[in-house]
Write a structure and sequence with these properties.
Chain lengths: 157, 790
C-alpha cells in the first residue's frame, strides 16, 4: 500500500506492506536511522518520534496510520546550519547521554514534556520519562537537562 | 627556574563531550544502521527447551518460503569451525569445559540456544521462514538450581559426570582461619543469593559481515566491546587468518559486559558470509537477546565472620556456588575470581578463606556483568557487617570504623595477597555520613517508629573497595587468564600540528574521545579540539585489549599519557637541534620549546611538527615524523573505593520500597573529566539499585525464562530513581602517572548492599535480618507479615 506523509517538513512516500511499522518505514524505506529500536514490546521508548507534534512510540504505530500526517524525528531538530536545538544542547551540557542509543527517544519524549507543561518540576519530568528506558545515565542528568531546557526556552514552547 | 606563564589546566575540569552532537542528531551509525547492499539476513531458530536431544530437523517447508536463500542445521555447518566457541579463562587445569558450537548439534542445553540458521533476503522473510522450521526434541531433565546442581542428582551435560566445572580456592592461612573462629567472641554466618540479571544494554546486539570473496578477506562490524579480542577469537574459531579479518565496532549502544564476549551469531555471520560469498547480517530481537546474550551474577554465597567482643573482625570465610549457565563463554569461570580477593572488603582482617565451585545449569550462560565478581563480594561482606553490628548492638557506621584499613597503612598488603594502592576509608565514611545527615536520619527513624508511622524509614551504609585495570599481565597469568592486561596507544602530531591519538580501548558510552583528548591536550598544552581520537577498528588500531573492567583510563589512558611524553621527548631533540642548544637547556611550556632563563628564544610545537614532517633538517640519526607508540603494562591493579548510603521508605501496607535518597562518596583517584565521572557513578548506582529492588531473570521449573521481554523484566525507569547526591575523596593511585583508578563499575559495586541494608534496617525493629534481592513489594510485605505475626 502507498503511504504519503511529511517527515521533518519534507514530503515522503513509500509503498509498504500493510504490517509495516512506522519505525521500519523511517529506518528502512527512508534511510533515517536516527530513530532506534530497543525492544519488541513497546517498553523501551528508543523509537519515540513526534506524530503531529505528540510523542509516540513508532514501533506501536503502523506506517499506514501515519499516512497524511506529520512526523518529526531526531534528525529534524537541529537547524539546517547545524545549530543544535536548545533541548539537544541541554542534553550535551548536562551529560544526559552516554552510549546514545536511547537518546533520540529521550529527546523526542522530552520535546513533548516541554510542550505539554507550562511549568516543570523534577517529579513531572520523571513521570513524563517513564515510558523511556536508559541503561547508562540513571536518568539523573536527563532530568536535569529537561529542566535546564525549560529554563532556557522559557515561554518559547 | 619557573616561568610565570601558566599552561591552561585541562585535566580535572568538566568538559562536555565531543561525541554528543552526532549522537544527539541521529547522525552516528550503530551496527544495525549500516546499509550494506546485498546483505542477507540471518535469523535463528532457537531451542524452546532447557535440556533436550535433537531428534529431527525438517527445513523443507522453510526452504521453500519466499526470499529464503538457505537453511542450515548445526550438522550442516560442522566443517566451518576450526574449534569450539572460545573460553579464555580456564581457571584451573582440571576445569571442565564442554565443547559447544555456534549451532547446537545433538543436544541443546538452555532455552534460547541456536539450533537452525535461516538466511533470507529480508529480515521479515527470514523470521517467517524460521517459523516454518520443524524440530523434534526429546526432552531431558533440566538442572536449574545451584544447590541442586552441586548434588549431581541430574546432569546439565549428559556426557559429563558432574555439574561441577571447577573448584577454585584461595586459602592463604587456613590454620589462622580455624583459630580465629575457635577463639571468636561472636560469629556471623549468612547465606545470600545473587540472583541472575539480564544486562539489557539498550542497543540489542547487531552485526554484519562483509566478505571480499576475491580478496579472501572479511570486514566484521559488530556491536562489541572487544573488537581486538573478537578478531583473534574469530580467526581461531572460524579458521581464518587474522590478517584477513578487520573488526570494527561502530557506535555501540552500551555493553555493561554483555558485549564483552564472542557470540554464536558473530561466528555464524562470518562463516555464512564465507560460505555464501555475500554479506550476512544479524540483529537480535530483544525477546531473544534476553536468552541468547549472557546473563550476569547467579551465585549462592555463604559468608562467615569471626569477631572479638568489640566487633573487630578476625577472620572471613567464604564458600560460593557460582552459576556458569549451560556453557563457558569468554570469561565465565573467571567472574567469581574477580571477587575472590575482596570478600574482606575495606577491612583489616587477619585470616581469610575463599572457595568457589563453578556449576553448570541448563540456563543461559553467565559472564561478566558490570562489576563482575566485585558487586557480589561487596554485597556479602557489607550485608554480613550489618549482621555483626546487629549482634553487637552497634551502629552500622561504628562497626565499620572499628575495622577499616587505616589511611596510614597504604600501600596495604591484603590477606588475600593484593597490594591496595591508596585510600582513605574513614574519610569516605565520615563525608558520606555528614552529607546524609546521618544522625538526623536516625532521629527521624526513631520518631517514626515511636509514632507507629506505616511509612518506615531505613538507612543503609555500604563501604566498598574494588580492583580495576586488571594487570600486570604476569599476575593475570598466575590466575590462568588467557590474555594480557596491557593497553596500546599511538600519539602522532600531524604536519599541521593537529594531533592524532590511536587507542586500543573500545568505548561504548564512556566518552573516551573526549577524555583521551583532554589527557593529550593537557600534556601538550594545546586545545582538546585539536586532538582526534581513533579507536574500535582493528585496521586503524591494530593492538588493543578493549574496554571492560573499568580498565580503559587507568591502563589505556596511561598508555596515551606515556606516548605523549615520548612525542615531547622526540620533539625536544628536534627543537634543540634547530635552536642549536642542548636539550637540557630547553623546557616545554604552553606548546612551545623555550630556552630556560631566556624564554624569548623559543620554537612552537607546530614548527617542530612541520620540521619532523619535511625532515629537511633533523638531527643525525633521528627518524622523521613525530609519533610514538606505547604498550603499557601496569605494575599493579588500581583500587577504587567509597561509601554509599541509601535511604529508603517502606510502605508497611503494600511492601513497596521507595529509594528516597542516595548519597555516594567515591574515590576513583584523580579525575580527568568530573562530568563523565559523575555520569558513570549515576549509571552504576542505578544498575546496583536495579539488582537490589527490581531485576531478576526468573525461570520456571522446566527452565523457561519467564520474563524475557522488557515488559516483564523490570529495568527501572526515571520514576523509580531519585536524583543522586555525590561527593568524592581523592587519593591518587601510585600505580600510574595519572594517579587514576577507574570508575565504570564503582557505582554498581557499592549500591546493592547499601539498598538492602537500608531495607533490612527499616524492618529491623520487627526482627527482620535479611531480605532477598530483589526486594519486591510482595517479598517485603511477606517479611513484614511474618515478622509481625511472631
Amino acid at each position: 500500500m502507498r503511504v504519503e506523509l511529511t517527515v521533518n517538513g519534507q514530503n515522503k512516500a513509500a509503498d509498504v506492506e500493510p504490517r509495516t511499522l512506522l519505525v521500519h518505514l523511517l529506518r528502512e524505506d527512508f534511510g533515517m536511522t536516527g530513530t532506534n529500536v530497543g525492544c519488541d514490546t513497546s517498553s523501551c521508548g528508543a523509537c519515540t518520534v513526534l506524530l503531529d507534534g505528540e510523542s509516540v512510540k513508532s514501533c506501536t504505530v503502523l506506517a499506514a496510520q501515519a499516512d497524511g500526517r506529520s512526523v518529526t524525528t531526531i534528525e529534524g531538530l537541529a537547524s539546517a546550519d547545524g545549530t543544535l536545538h536548545p533541548l539537544q544542547r541541554a542534553f550535551q551540557e548536562n551529560h544526559a547521554l552516554q552510549c546514545g542509543y536511547c537518546t533520540p527517544g529521550m529527546v523526542m519524549v522530552s520535546m513533548s514534556i516541554l510542550a505539554e507543561n507550562d511549568t516543570l518540576d523534577e517529579a513531572t519530568v520523571r513521570e513524563g520519562l517513564e515510558g523511556n528506558l536508559c541503561r547508562c545515565t540513571g536518568y539523573h542528568n536527563i532530568v536535569k537537562a529537561v529542566l535546564a531546557a525549560k529554563e532556557e526556552m522559557g515561554a518559547e514552547l | 627556574m619557573t616561568d610565570p606563564v601558566q599552561q591552561e589546566q585541562i585535566i580535572g575540569k568538566r568538559r562536555i563531550r565531543r561525541e554528543d552532537p552526532k549522537l544527539l542528531s541521529g547522525e552516528n551509525r550503530f551496527a544495525d544502521d549500516l546499509v550494506v547492499p546485498g546483505a542477507l539476513h540471518l535469523v535463528l531458530v532457537r531451542s524452546p527447551h532447557a535440556h533436550a536431544r535433537i531428534q529431527r530437523i525438517d527445513v523443507s517447508a522453510a526452504k521453500s518460503m519466499p526470499g529464503v536463500v538457505e537453511v542450515f542445521s548445526g550438522k550442516d555447518l560442522e566443517s566451518e569451525w576450526a574449534g569450539p566457541m572460545p573460553c579464555a579463562w580456564p581457571v584451573t587445569a582440571e576445569m571442565k569445559n564442554p565443547a559447544h558450537y555456534p549451532l547446537a548439534v545433538e543436544y541443546v542445553h538452555y532455552a534460547g540456544e541456536g539450533v537452525v540458521a535461516v538466511v533470507a533476503r529480508s529480515q521479515v522473510e527470514a523470521v517467517d521462514a524460521a517459523g516454518a522450521v520443524i524440530v523434534d526434541y526429546e526432552e531431558l531433565a533440566p538442572v536449574l538450581e545451584l544447590e541442586e546442581a552441586v548434588k549431581d542428582t541430574a546432569l546439565a551435560h549428559e556426557d559429563l559426570e558432574s555439574n561441577t566445572s571447577f573448584v577454585w580456592a584461595l586459602e592463604p592461612n587456613p590454620e589462622a582461619v580455624d583459630a580465629a573462629f575457635r577463639d571468636a567472641a561472636v560469629t556471623v554466618s549468612e547465606r545470600f543469593v545473587q540472583q541472575r540479571l539480564i544486562p539489557a544494554a539498550m542497543e540489542p546486539r547487531a552485526m554484519v559481515v562483509v566478505p571480499s570473496p576475491m580478496g579472501g578477506d572479511y570486514t566484521v562490524y559488530s556491536s562489541t566491546q572487544i573488537p581486538h579480542v573478537l578478531r583473534v577469537m574469530l580467526a581461531l574459531t572460524a579458521g581464518i587468518s587474522e590478517t584477513k579479518l578487520r573488526v570494527i565496532a561502530p557506535s555501540v549502544g552500551g555493553g555493561f559486559g554483555s558485549k564483552l564476549d564472542v557470540y554464536a551469531e558473530e561466528l555464524l555471520c562470518l562463516a555464512l558470509a564465507r560460505r555464501m560469498r555475500q554479506p550476512v547480517r544479524f540483529t537480535e530481537e530483544r525477546g531473544e537477546g534476553t536468552m541468547a546474550t549472557i546473563h550476569g551474577r547467579g551465585q549462592v554465597q555463604h559468608i562467615e565472620l569471626a569477631a572479638n567482643a568489640d566487633g573487630k573482625v578476625t577472620a572471613v570465610r567464604v564458600k560460593l556456588l557460582a552459576d556458569m549457565g549451560a556453557y563457558l563463554q569468554l570469561v565465565t569461570p573467571g567472574v567469581p575470581l574477580l571477587g575472590a580477593f575482596l570478600y574482606h572488603g575495606v577491612y583489616d582482617v587477619g585470616a581469610y578463606s575463599f572457595t568457589c565451585t563453578g556449576l553448570f545449569t541448563n540456563k543461559t550462560p553467565t559472564d561478566a556483568y558490570r562489576g563482575a565478581g566485585r558487586p557480589e563480594a561487596t554485597y556479602a561482606i557489607e550485608r554480613a557487617m550489618d549482621s555483626l553490628a546487629r549482634r553487637l548492638e552497634l551502629d552500622p557506621a561504628e562497626i565499620r570504623r572499628r575495622n577499616f584499613i587505616a589511611a596510614d597503612k597504604f600501600p596495604y598488603e591484603s590477606v588475600a595477597g593484593l597490594v591496595f594502592d591508596s585510600g582513605s576509608y574513614h574519610a569516605n565514611l565520615e563525608k558520606a555520613l555528614d552529607k546524609a545527615g546521618y544522625s538526623d536520619l536516625r532521629r527521624e527513624q526513631e520518631q517514626r517508629r515511636a509514632a507507629g508511622n506505616p511509612r518506615r524509614l531505613g538507612i543503609g551504609v555500604s563501604c566498598y573497595v574494588e580492583m580495576c585495570g586488571l594487570a600486570p599481565s604476569r599476575v593475570l597469568a598466575s590466575l590462568n587468564y588467557g590474555a594480557g592486561g596491557w593497553e596500546a596507544a599511538t600519539v602522532r602530531i600531524l604536519p599541521t600540528s593537529k594531533v592524532q591519538v590511536v587507542t586500543g580501548t573500545a568505548p561504548h558510552g564512556q566518552g573516551h574521545e573526549t577524555s583521551w583528548s583532554m589527557i593529550v591536550a593537557d600534556k601538550l598544552g594545546i586545545s582538546p579540539d585539536d586532538v582526534e581520537v581513533l579507536h574500535s577498528d582493528t585496521a586503524i588500531a591494530p593492538y588493543g585489549m578493549d574496554t571492560y573492567g573499568s580498565r580503559s583510563l587507568s591502563v589505556g589512558g596511561t598508555a596515551i599519557y606515556l606516548a605523549t611524553e615520548r612525542v615531547i621527548e622526540k620533539a625536544m631533540k628536534i627543537a634543540a637541534h634547530q635552536m642549536e642548544v642542548a636539550e637540557e637547556d630547553l623546557e616545554y611550556v604552553g606548546a612551545t620549546f623555550r630556552v630556560k632563563g631566556s624564554p624569548e628564544q623559543q620554537l612552537p610545537l607546530a614548527a617542530i611538527a612541520f620540521e619532523a614532517f619535511t625532515a629537511h633538517n633533523l638531527p643525525d640519526g633521528l627518524e622523521p615524523n613525530l609519533e610514538a607508540s606505547i604498550s603499557w603494562d601496569p605494575p599493579n591493579f588500581t583500587f577504587p573505593n567509597g561509601t554509599h548510603i541509601a535511604v529508603v521508605e517502606i510502605d508497611e501496607e503494600t511492601g513497596r520500597v521507595q529509594l528516597v535518597r542516595y548519597i555516594a562518596v567515591d574515590d576513583c583517584g584523580n579525575q580527568i573529566n568530573p562530568l563523565i565521572v559523575e555520569g558513570q557513578v549515576h549509571g552504576g548506582i542505578t544498575q546496583g539499585v536495579a539488582q537490589a529492588l527490581y531485576e531478576e531473570a526468573l525461570y520456571d521449573s522446566s527452565g523457561q525464562l519467564l520474563n524475557a521481554s522488557l515488559a516483564d523484566y523490570l529495568v527501572p525507569s526515571a520514576c523509580e530513581m531519585p536524583s543522586f547526591e555525590l561527593d568524592s575523596t581523592v587519593t591518587p593511585s601510585p600505580t600510574n602517572p595519572l594517579g587514576v583508578k577507574g570508575v565504570g563499575e564503582a557505582g554498581t559495586i557499592g549500591s546493592a548492599p547499601a539498598v538492602i541494608n537500608a531495607v533490612v534496617d527499616a524492618l529491623s525493629d520487627l526482627g527482620v535480618t535479611d531480605c532477598p534481592m530483589p526486594a519486591t513489594p510482595e517479598r517485603v510485605y511477606q517479611l513484614i507479615q511474618q515478622a509481625s505475626s511472631k
